[in-house]
Structures
1.
Amino acid sequence: GENVEQHPSTLSVQEGDSAVIKCTYSDSASNYFPWYKQELGKRPQLIIDIRSNVGEKKDQRIAVTLNKTAKHFSLHITETQPEDSAVYFCAAVNFGNEKLTFGTGTRLTIIP
Amino acid sequence: EPEVTQTPSHQVTQMGQEVILRCVPISNHLYFYWYRQILGQKVEFLVSFYNNEISEKSEIFDDQFSVERPDGSNFTLKIRSTKLEDSAMYFCASRSGTSTDTQYFGPGTRLTVL
């Protein structure tokens, strides 16, 4: 089955700097890669996603890149703000088998 | 904006008791899921449900677990005989299956087994 690894597990950046979180996946059939933000005690919230036929996607301060050959994808947050502090999870799914396989999460702390 | 809802927000039960966790998916969504998250760990897939039947389940989803969509709106997860290790946050999610691949998560039910 699919295995998703995520690094780093914790990340602290100064407010205004950029943050990068990286994930690798094992199943070459995976074709959809969402990123979720989870604040303490809250539900995972989708922040951006990318399909396997696209190499990069951007939404304001957030971007995701996908390298299908290397089977890795990354989340980039620019001009970080205190409200970006949360746990971020990457995930992969092959819609042949429905389930989201999550990475282990990255606790991002923005230092004011 | 429509959201997935879940009840109760927190359930405390004694080991060996049955619990039913309830979810109301987003209206017109066709695919439904249960996930769990043990405190401090990643979110883990339990089961997916489509067209009134299970489409996939994980190794966690053993005979103690069952799912049901009894009335066309609610989607329930039943744990027949709870164990201490069932203590976790349980998230329901739904997906439209048409215009988007996105799974939308509910707020979760925190299950505490004593």
2.
Amino acid sequence: NAGVMQNPRHLVRRRGQEARLRCSPMKGHSHVYWYRQLPEEGLKFMVYLQKENIIDESGMPKERFSAEFPKEGPSILRIQQVVRGDSAAYFCASSQIAGNTEAFFGQGTRLTVV
Amino acid sequence: AQSVTQLGSHVSVSEGALVLLRCNYSSSVPPYLFWYVQYPNQGLQLLLKYTTGATLVKGINGFEAEFKKSETSFHLTKPSAHMSDAAEYFCAWAGNTGNQFYFGTGTSLTVIP
């Protein structure tokens, strides 16, 4: 049973470009959570999704950021018109049941904006 | 605001010495508490968690933590540090809704040979 898979592991984007981060949850998991880790900081919650639904996006920046978890395929975190401040590690976690007490984390995507 | 606080952003111990990483939570309801470890350029790995029941929780790699409601603490300990324990450690609380973790700012553990 593969773990939570995130790709790419490293992503470099120029300012103004779009970044797409993918997360494939563990088999049988229908709940996905995205976190952002800025340098020298802990992880900060961004969004919680179930299949085709956004449950909690209280941590998402109001502009440029969006997330989806379609019926088929991975969850996508999309950042439009990236800026230097978006450089961070983005982690995805998944769980089988609602409430992330049994969440498993992926290895993250490290986004660098140049 | 409800949160977790990790005291000490950097901790150094000698190999074989006791490891103590501190975490205090701020919550008016019984919390679900977790410790995660992060190795360089890796994701988070669950060390242990407290939900209900026994307050002394044993995890992987010889780590354990004790939930102390009277002190609102959930400190992580290991009797004897190993070089492979060098990593970043995060305390986390599963918030009231269960929709997200609230993470502490992390403690970087260095093990000195």
